[in-house]
Amino acid sequence: MRIIIAVICSLILSGCSQPRLYNDNTVELIEEALNLNVVSEEDAFNKSLSFIKGVKDRERKIKIEIIYKPAMTDLVNRLAVELSSIGLNNNNLKLELTDAAEDKDLVVKSIYKRYTNHDCGELSFHNRDEYRFGCALEFNRNISLVNSFK
């Protein structure tokens, strides 16, 4: 008897839902870069740190990639220590040494994902036939993928 009731309930509930055959949600991978030819190490340190802090204030989960020449090793070490003190995880920091023939002395890249918000609308008695019931679930799933907990 319980099995029959469960089957009937599942048929009724699946008959009330509308399938979404398209996905209009987008997740963008965004990369910002700061390219520096270093004249003063202190200025380069301050510009790099303010660039990273600006991105970190805007976005919750970022990855930082620092590409530098061998002459900038001390600057990058200071920057890595400062980034760990402001709360950037070492797993999200990648340091890469390049040869001296590159154009820029220091390149700081920030990589993050952004989910573009699509409005699901509000459920009311008048729009119940057109309301997309899976929209809120899809929105929350994408937000949790982009801004996941550590």
What would a concise description of this structure say?
By secondary structure, the protein is an alpha+beta fold. The protein has helices at 2-16, 41-58, 73-85, 135-146; strands at 26-36, 62-68, 93-97, 106-116.
Describe the model:
A four-stranded mixed β-sheet has the order 1-4-2-3. With 150 residues, it is an alpha+beta fold. The relative contact order is 0.20. Helix 2 runs parallel beside helix 3. 39% of the residues lie in helices and 23% in strands. It contains four helices and four strands. The chain has helices at 2-16, 41-58, 73-85, 135-146, and strands at 26-36, 62-68, 93-97, 106-116. The two termini are 46 Å apart.
> How much of the residues is beta strand, in percent?
15-25%
SS elements, strand count:
4
* C-alpha termini separation: 46 Å
Q: What is the ordering of alpha helices and beta strands?
A: HEHEHEEH
Mean pLDDT: 79
What portion of residues is helical? 25-40%
Order of neighbouring strands in the sheet with most strands: 1-4-2-3
The coarse overall form would be elongated
Unreliably modeled segments: none
| Quaternary organisation of the protein chains | single chain
Number of helices: 4
Comma- or semicolon-separated keywords:
4 strands, elongated, 150 residues
Give the SSE map:
Layout lengths: L1 H15 L9 E11 L4 H18 L3 E7 L4 H13 L7 E5 L8 E11 L18 H12 L4
Parallel strand pairs: 2-3
Antiparallel strand pairs: 1-4, 2-4
